[in-house]
Amino acid sequence: MNTDLSILHLIKEASVVVQFVMALLVSASLASWTFIFSKRKELKRAITITDEFEAEFWSGVALAELYRKLTAKGFEPEGIEKIFLAGYKEFSRMRQAGNVEPIVQVESAQRAMRIELSRELDRLDEHLPFLATVGSTSPYVGLFGTVWGIMNSFRSLSNVKQATLAQVAPGIAEALIATAIGLFAAIPAVIAYNRFSTNLDRLIGRYELFVEEFVVLLQRQAHQK
């Protein structure tokens, strides 16, 4: 009887179902890490852009000048910049239309910013549900592989008069690898999901606060002749 209990050998000798479970979990783990690195970079950039924009916005720069800068040829606005552009563009359009009540001008701009805020939230939230799914289901998928492997291991002893630990150890060991891979896939996904969700909530909170503060500024401008 082959007593090689190396991980690679156990995976190679595992049943087709257990091997499929392992391959599925490894694929989920690789996809999770890809999303983790890309989302980390994306959120970091969004926070940096927000910091820089708010510093310039509250520096006293004219709104029209800031609008021209963000709409200049070759400039690609992102995040909070898009929210500002949506609100200011709609506000300017309503102002130029004439005979529009100030409150209507401001409400129209606020709606435009809210729409852009929702789009930005959808973009930033992309892939987070996948991380949540991997984090919550991987241990159970791994457990299924383990149960299946142990079941097959005991079934193979049905025709054996005297079972020994050496006979069942390889089957149980290969089955437990599925659980280990499931945990390996789930733990980083859960940690990343919680961290990204917290950072995203803070960032969206800053976006919403900016919308409210910008609305106040627009209200002042709307009542100016």
From TrEMBL:
<comment type="similarity">
    <text>Belongs to the ExbB/TolQ family.</text>
</comment>
<dbReference type="InterPro" id="IPR050790">
    <property type="entry name" value="ExbB/TolQ_transport"/>
</dbReference>
<dbReference type="GO" id="GO:0005886">
    <property type="term" value="C:plasma membrane"/>
</dbReference>
<keyword id="KW-0132">Cell division</keyword>
<comment type="subunit">
    <text>The Tol-Pal system is composed of five core proteins: the inner membrane proteins TolA, TolQ and TolR, the periplasmic protein TolB and the outer membrane protein Pal. They form a network linking the inner and outer membranes and the peptidoglycan layer.</text>
</comment>
<dbReference type="Pfam" id="PF01618">
    <property type="entry name" value="MotA_ExbB"/>
</dbReference>
<keyword id="KW-0472">Membrane</keyword>
<dbReference type="InterPro" id="IPR002898">
    <property type="entry name" value="MotA_ExbB_proton_chnl"/>
</dbReference>
<feature type="transmembrane region" description="Helical">
    <location>
        <begin position="128"/>
        <end position="151"/>
    </location>
</feature>
<keyword id="KW-0131">Cell cycle</keyword>
<keyword id="KW-1003">Cell membrane</keyword>
<feature type="transmembrane region" description="Helical">
    <location>
        <begin position="16"/>
        <end position="37"/>
    </location>
</feature>
<keyword id="KW-0812">Transmembrane</keyword>
<dbReference type="GO" id="GO:0017038">
    <property type="term" value="P:protein import"/>
</dbReference>
<keyword id="KW-1133">Transmembrane helix</keyword>
<protein>
    <recommendedName>
        <fullName>Tol-Pal system protein TolQ</fullName>
    </recommendedName>
</protein>
<keyword id="KW-0997">Cell inner membrane</keyword>
<dbReference type="InterPro" id="IPR014163">
    <property type="entry name" value="Tol-Pal_TolQ"/>
</dbReference>
<feature type="transmembrane region" description="Helical">
    <location>
        <begin position="171"/>
        <end position="193"/>
    </location>
</feature>
<feature type="domain" description="MotA/TolQ/ExbB proton channel">
    <location>
        <begin position="81"/>
        <end position="208"/>
    </location>
</feature>
<dbReference type="GO" id="GO:0051301">
    <property type="term" value="P:cell division"/>
</dbReference>
<dbReference type="GO" id="GO:0043213">
    <property type="term" value="P:bacteriocin transport"/>
</dbReference>
<comment type="function">
    <text>Part of the Tol-Pal system, which plays a role in outer membrane invagination during cell division and is important for maintaining outer membrane integrity.</text>
</comment>
